[in-house]
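Review form for a predicted model. The reviewer records the input and the model, then writes brief findings.
Reviewer: anonymous (R2)
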Amino acid sequence: MNHVELKEAITKGETSLGIEFGSTRIKAVLIDHRFETIASGSFEWENLLKDGYWTYSQEDIITGLQTAYREMKQEVERNYGVTLRTVGSIGFSAMMHGYMAFDSTGELLVPFRTWRNATTGAAARELTDLFQFNIPERWSIAHLYQAILNQEEHVPRIDFVTTLAGYIHWLMTGNKVIGIGDASGIFPIDESTHNYHPTMVEQFDELIAAKGYSWKLEDLLPKVYLSGERAGELTAAGAAILDPAGDLQSGIPLCPPEGDAGTGMVATNSVKKRTGNISVGTSVFAMIVLEKELSKVYPEIDMVTTPNGSPVGMVHANNCSSDLNAWMGLFREFSEAMGYNMDSAKLFSVLLNKALEADPDGGGLLSYGYLSGENITGIDKGRPLFVRSPESNFNLANFMRTHLFTAFGALKLGMDILTENEQVAIDSILAHGGLFKTPVVGQKALAAALNVPISVMSTAGEGGAWGMALLASYMTGKDQEESLDEFLEQKVFKDAEGQEIAPDRADVEGFQVFIKRYQAGLAIEQAAVDHLLENGRD
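Model under review:
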């Protein structure tokens, strides 16, 4: 489309808007009918550890939403001379899991508890045993049951429990709904009915019956929707929140809100069986669309769904790039102290590319980037740790490779369960996330870790907000009976370009040496945490 055609399409609302609340950035993306980005906006934020819980404030949630939308709107006005008043469809997505509990007046009863909290171990274990289905600590039902076990005062007052995406959608439409992918991180889903598993719902109600609460579980949870279904319209109140300037019109249709795992699958065309994608950010997770159920329950594997309801084996590690980013910040301080002002892209490019010059195993160095607890490796509390011996080859190249390798360490241990224990077949894996904006390096490290080819599409940097915009576009633009995977394959990604990197033998062997060191050193990490806790430095 040329400039004049785009301007007309924007004026008529022939566009789709996706907004995603990531762990470090809220991003808004507006796309045209060819699924290309017209404009975007963002808001940087960070979770806070408050009263023992990782959280984001309601104020930051709303401020970030409005800022990301305003920046996108300003870009539209700057580039096309159009004041944005309507779009064809909207979708909201966010970090999955966590706990947002409200009373009947809409008051948030306790601060938002994010996926990052490792405070629900007792609840997760008891529910896993009860359901014979893995309930990770991150899941909303684990947070709810842990609050019950803790006898928290707010529990009898609960009227509604949802995720961050479900909360934003509720604000915008007044509808308490959720997309099935995000729902599968709240409570187990029955694949045959595409709803919460009825037997497990009954088991939960029986488990807490003696507590005498006035509510039943099903009363609290948002209604489950599939991709492509219409999940409400933007109300006047919702439009005023999203665009305080008052330009945005109400009545715009909204698709079901989704989790970042689902938008990652969509953004990488990974909703078909035997495909997979890996999302790299503060956390890292691999989503493999399964052909059949796993033979047993694994605490390291989450069973979730695609946005259209297919079963997915999810390996989720709580920690990935945060510690690497912290080191990058330190190097930035050094460069500024030396009188060099280097932009982020140059800084990451220079330092990450040093990893290509490193010894295959990282020179005997060892690092754990655990800012928070890590469920896969059984670490309860996060304490970033870097260790070397006198014999280690300590230089910048090995330092960078070690921090890249360790970012994928916990993920590797979880993926081995799928590929080695369960013999899960994977035809393709696509990766996305900011790490891959620096070409080649992240792909090579990930290919070495998993010993499979890793592809990155030209759209990899677009991320989940773009994937959410695609889901919004699918709702209004699909043909009758057109499935989500057909829509993505035949329309969105028909001419998509990508780069595949196969695992290098030396890199794979080097990572195998590193991961043995990583596993052996887990006792060091736990001992360091225990020592700090015992000395009152938690």
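Findings: The longest strand covers residues 37-44.
Further findings: The chain has a mean pLDDT of 93.
Recommendation: see findings above.
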